[in-house]
Amino acid sequence: MLWGDAKLGLYDLLAALGERAESMRQRHAGYAAEIPQRMEKWREEVAEKLYSNDKPISVARILTEINKVLPGDGYLVADGGFASIGYGLPGAIGAALAASGRPVLSLTDDSGFCMVLGDLETAKHLNLDFTVIVINNAASGYVKALQHLVYGADSYTSSDLNEVNFAKVAQSMGCTGIRVEDPGEIESVLRQALSTRGSVVLDMVVTRDPAKMLPGVDSRAAVIKKGDRIA
């Protein structure tokens, strides 16, 4: 494992390769040329989900619109990495403090957002500019989805959450809050949020069906049957 800034780390690796860098570049040129072609083929294969008009909103559609709207100099904080949750909002606060004036977008879910909801008052107090997208499925979605796959329908323990309108919660704390239920509105709402001063919460209403909560954009996703033991 390497620890460091991604861009600066690549420069260091290139320097360490020295004279070998050019021969390695030539050796892998064919593979490098294939990557854009493979990516284009993949996009075509999964286009139905990436541009889904399903209601409730598909998470894949949300990610598609983020890729379209977030500028190259923006920051994306992705909550839930390595199965830990709760840092979406404080991560946005940290990014906004460290890179004032740069677009900051944070992606979290209702379970993680509820853990740190009080930090929204801190963000308002500091007058920080950022946008938090709350993936609202009224559940600890990953947990509920795994319970569904392993134990079957209606076998859920401590995974459901109350239905909460996080847009109204944000408004009550003096921040901008917008609830989004139509996938056709995502792009315009994201652009509006990124141009709004202060802290913005976008409450994205996604599926409540545990059979559809796990990521599964394409055919490479694992097929998991009841009784399978997975991490």
What keyword list fits this structure?
2 domains; alpha/beta; 11 helices; Rossmann fold; 5 strands; 5-stranded parallel sheet; 231 residues
Instruction: Report Rg.
Output: 20 Å
Q: CATH superfamily assignment of the largest domain?
A: Thiamin diphosphate (ThDP)-binding fold, Pyr/PP domains
What is the fold named in CATH at topology level of the largest domain? Rossmann fold
- Residues in helices, as a percent range: 40-55%
Based on secondary structure, the structural category is alpha/beta
Question: Judging by the overall fold, what is the CATH architecture of the largest domain?
Answer: 3-Layer(aba) Sandwich
Poorly predicted regions are none
- Secondary structure tally, helices: 11
| Overall outline | globular
Number of strands: 5
Please report the distance between the alpha carbons of the first and last residues.
21 Å
Question: Any idea of the CATH class of the largest domain?
Answer: Alpha Beta
Protein model, in words:
It is a single chain. The longest helix is centred in the N-terminal third of the chain and has 17 residues, at 29-45. The protein has 2 domains: 7-43, no CATH class; 53-212, 3-Layer(aba) Sandwich (Rossmann fold). It has 231 residues and is α/β, with parallel strands linked by helices. The protein has helices at 6-17, 20-27, 29-45, 47-50, 59-69, 88-98, 110-115, 119-126, 141-151, 166-172, 186-194, and strands at residues 75-78, 104-109, 130-136, 176-180, 199-205. The protein is globular. The mean pLDDT is 90. Helix 5 (59-69) crosses helix 11. Strand 4, helix 11 and strand 5 form a beta-alpha-beta unit. A 5-stranded parallel sheet has the order 1-2-3-5-4, sandwiched between helices.
